[in-house]
């Protein structure tokens, strides 16, 4: 479904993503692992259309994503590491704004906002300004905006980072639920999270893909997991 071919991206002379290729099948949950600075966020931003690659190609169901804003808007949901929200907006105002950005028509908008509020269990917080929410609730708002329009592919950058154990469990269950209907790529440092959620693991090291393996085959590559410093 998603095909990433020979992706490269540098910041000045520093190569952040170095000739990375992988494919993802429909319905998979993929864990993108690697230590700080390995290139995870850069790859996620490129696939989501927030950053241009220097080289390579990303395609969804055979169609190049590149600058295809319409395709990205329709089929891709993205939870960035730090959600760029207006802190004084209420949750309801923000989701309304996010639905407009997704290009949802007036007819669809209300039903979609109701659906994502239910899915993320946010109904008690609709009138709360976003900056009054805990990190866990802010992340739920982030997921709610990402799943507006029911995207085929959901990209989550460290979705449980900074969450307490209860919110972490809630987020993991939410991701499992969403994965019933969408393909998911999530980045994380936590091996336990990968074990709980993922079908397949990609490990990045200094911008290069050093492992692409199904979770049940991962015990043969323990050394790589340990080397990339992504265990608990
Ligand atoms: P983390 O787990 O810390 O989020 P990451 O694996 O997501 O790390 P990236 O954020 O993709 O890694 O960063 C890859 C490398 O590129 C890092 O060395 C980072 O410092 C560098 N980098 C990222 N963004 C920029 C930028 N805008 N300008 C210069 N260097 C950057």
Report on the architecture of this protein.
The protein is an alpha/beta fold and 232 residues long. The chain contains 8 helices and 10 strands. The protein has helices at 40-48, 69-75, 91-101, 106-120, 135-146, 165-178, 191-197, 222-227; strands at residues 2-11, 14-24, 29-33, 55-60, 63-64, 76-79, 153-157, 183-188, 200-205, 208-214. The chain has a 6-stranded mixed beta sheet, sandwiched between helices. It has a 4-stranded antiparallel beta sheet with strand order 2-1-4-5, with helices on one face. A hairpin with a 2-residue loop joins strand 9 (200-205) and strand 10. Helix 4 packs antiparallel against helix 5. The longest helix has 15 residues, at 106-120. It is globular, with a radius of gyration of 17 Å. The two termini are 31 Å apart. The mean pLDDT is 90. The structure holds adenosine-5'-triphosphate. Residues 11, 16, 34, 36-42 line the site of adenosine-5'-triphosphate.
List keywords for this structure.
single chain; 232 residues; alpha/beta; four-stranded antiparallel beta sheet; 10 strands; 35% helix; binds adenosine-5'-triphosphate
